[in-house]
Specification:
elongated, mainly alpha, 99 residues
């Protein structure tokens, strides 16, 4: 393993030094900022859930859109409201899961 002294001064040398021993590794979690982002994502996901619930209620009352409640398939000529909402919800959930 290369000595940290072999790296240029500044960030490269500091990174090599910190990496040289497990007991030197210490980083901030940015816990408050992380929680703030998660809270905003939760709020956005909750709004999308409500929109999907309202759409489902509308679809259940309308024979024209009932197909959206019973199919996971998608045909090109169909109304895209549910698909668009599910796509947006999926992206937010993936983002939330990574955080």
């Amino acid at each position: 393993m290369a000595s940290d002294e072999e790296f240029p001064g500044g960030w490269p040398r500091l990174a090599a030094f910190i990496n040289s021993a497990d007991d030197l590794t210490m980083f901030r979690r940015f816990g408050r900022a992380h929680c703030r982002i998660l809270l905003h994502l939760e709020a956005e996901i909750t709004i999308l859930e409500r929109q999907l619930d309202l759409l489902d209620t509308h679809d259940a009352e309308s024979p024209e859109f009932m197909y959206r409640l019973r199919s996971s398939e998608w045909d090109e000529g169909w109304n895209p409201a549910q698909k668009d909402l599910l796509d947006e919800l999926k992206m937010k959930l993936l983002e939330y899961g990574k955080s």
